[in-house]
Amino acid sequence: MKKKLLVTFALVYLLIVNVKAQYAWSKDTAFLGAPRAYDVGFSIGHYLYVGCGAGTSTYYNDFWRWNQDSNTWTAVASYPGLGYRICPTAFSIEGKGYVGLGQGASGMTNDLWSYDTSKNKWTQMATFPGTPRYAQSVFVVGHKAFIIGGSIGGPPYLDDVWMYDAHANSWTQMNNSPSGKMETQVTFTIGNHGYLGGGFNSSTDVSTFWEYDTTTDTWATIANIPIVNGIGGCPSAFVLGSKAYVCLGGVGTNSKYTTYGYRYDTITKAWSVFTNMEKIGISGGYGVGFSIGNIGYIATGRDSLGNPRNILWQYSDTSTTGISSNGDKIISLFLYPNPSLGVLHIKCNVLIDKQLEFRVTDVFGRIINTSRIDKQNLTLDEAKLGNGIYFYQVLDSDKLISSGKFIIQK
Q: Using CA atoms, how far apart are residues 137 and 147, in angstroms rounded to an integer?
């Protein structure tokens, strides 16, 4: 008789006001590959993948996987593009990683490859139709990635925008970037909007920021990032709920790095300082930023003296498990028993009065179940959920509301 995994949502009213989350930086196991900068990374499930880039006088195409649960690094298949890659593009869509473009042994490139985590195998995808480049920016909304600007090796830089559709394996040119011809801009995605800002325009580091609406292919200005002289130099960024965190950018006009980390709140639409990078001893730039669940990470890059490094640091919320969904409520999900023997109960701290998506992925980041939360009881087919670790996300119109993991032990 086929079993069912019954997920029960116990919904209670709770208004949370004046919640002050406590955040802290801490070290994880250092990157096991050679110290480097100008590399790329992407996260899938509870794994981070980091590769390519350059050391002091050495260039790389190797790739490494970090396991969040065991805090260990493992070498995986090297990037197969011809030669090494400096400042390529990297992103993940629906459980697959994508890496392409960048500077290689023969100059600027325009190839794109996808990485299958379950097979440890790279496959070449549709060639990027724009000008070969490096130091471009990218954000992902749904199953589409948006490649923006970049450099052909020097000014003038580029301002074109290209959309890659992972379902169709095809490229489409969009309206040009409103920020002008730029390289090394910072990007992030929150909900169904992409964000773009900072960067270097060949003479000035820029502080302007823009929000992109994918449904209308239009840009709107948002508050400038509050950094004197702007921010260039490949800053790192990660997203936790409705907020983006930007740090470790280089200011090219005076050869310095930004001292502070800055947080953008999409609810208040304002920037604020969230950390002093020099105080914790990780100043520098040109590394990787990413998030897994409710934890943000920065890795690799150059230190303030320009030396390549192999750091991995995490930034985590130590006071709350929920993620802000609006100005006065925080949604928290409590799962029990966990590990589960077949029935998993989920208690929510606020009344859910709209239809939300409940998504389950395996350890490779593959989506194995998607359901709509519009009733108090949700039944999932246990046939696809064997013993092991699973990750869930609760989404409101593609905006992340809450996330976590659970274990099945039958």
A: 6
At a CB cut-off of 8 Å and minimum separation 6, what does 277 contact?
Answer: 247, 248, 257, 258, 259, 260, 261, 283
Per the listing, tokens 């310095």 go with 256
Domains of the chain are 4-16+322-408 (2.60.40.3080), 23-317 (2.120.10.80)
Please indicate, yes or no, whether the overall pTM of this predicted structure exceeds 0.70: yes
Give me the sign of the Cα torsion angle 190, 164, 157, 249. Answer: positive
Give CA–CA dist 255/285, Å, rounded: 11
Task: Give the contacts of 337 (CB within 8 A, at least 6 positions apart).
Answer: 344, 345
**Beta-sheet pairing, 4-11 with 343-348:** parallel
pLDDT in tens, 58-79: 999 999 999 988 899 999 999 9
Q: Please, what is the average pLDDT of the chain?
A: 82
> What are the tens digits of pLDDT across the range 155-164?
999 999 999 9
48 neighbors 65 (Cβ within 8 angstroms)? yes
